Every structure is written in C-alpha cells, then in structure tokens.
C-alpha cells in the first residue's frame, strides 16, 4: 500500500483490552526486526517483559496514554505517552514503516502532552526516525537493564 493510501486508511484510537495481544505481538515483531540484534540477552529479556500483554494491561491503568494505529481491522502501530511527558513506546509493523504511520501516531500522542518538552529514550536504530520527527539528542548514549538508548527530546510549540 502506498504511503498516502495507507496514511488515509489508518485510524488512531485509544488502546483497548481486546488489543493487548495484538499490540504485544506487534511490539515484539518490530523489536525483533530492528532493535533486538543491537542488544544483549539482558536487553532483549527486559524488553520482552515491558512489551508483554500483562505489562501493557498494567500501564493502561496508570497515567499513560496508549494509542494504536488501526488499518482494515488490524493493529499496525502503537505509541505510549507516559505521564504526558515521555514517549515510552513507538512501534509500527515492519511492513508499514516509513509510510507515515509513526508520524501520525506521534502527532496524535503529542496532543496529550502536559509539558513543553517531551522526552524519549530512543533505541539506537530508531534515532534517525525520531530526528525526522523533530527530536534532538540531549545527552550521551546510556544503558538500563540491558536496553541501550539515546536520550532525545522535542520542544512543542505553545499554541496559546
């Protein structure tokens, strides 16, 4: 599907209980495809726990906004904005990457931001995508529980 056709057919909505398994699977497939090979076994294990259906179910009840991109009844992307200030997850199905789905998810999630500067701990393979979205690197590459990341942030325009 071409970029504009896919973008036009993608619906962004809040994640629901019925989406848990599909979202978890999407995250693991996308992660395995682009990030897992850059991490240690510890990092892969840590991510697997974070991306589990149970972990998403728990975070749905917290101060997080979790949105999905749905196309023709299928979940093709997910984004999680934690406490209105930090992008905790952004994954798009590998076959739909670079077609505007991530950009649409991010734009929708940023509407829920409660701060002027939103942060992300970007996996190293995702840094170019975040730069394209307008994020800038803000510190040195770091590691936590085997997850290697680049701190980044985006300044939101205050429309008031």
How would the global form be characterised? globular
Tally the beta strands: 8
CATH superfamily: Gcn5-related N-acetyltransferase (GNAT)
Helix and strand sequence: HEHHHEEEHEHEEE
Task: Report how far apart the termini are.
Answer: 38 Å
Compute the gyration radius: what is it? 15 Å
Stated plainly, the CATH topology is called Aminopeptidase
> How many separate helices?
6
- Going by helix content, strand content and strand pairing, the class is alpha+beta
What is the CATH class designation?
Alpha Beta
Helix fraction? Answer: 25-40%
Any idea what the CATH architecture is?
3-Layer(aba) Sandwich
Integer tally of domains: 1
* Poorly predicted spans: none
Q: What portion of the residues fall into strands of 2 or more residues?
A: 25-35%
The largest sheet is: 8 strands, mixed
> Averaged pLDDT, please?
93
What is the subunit arrangement here? single chain
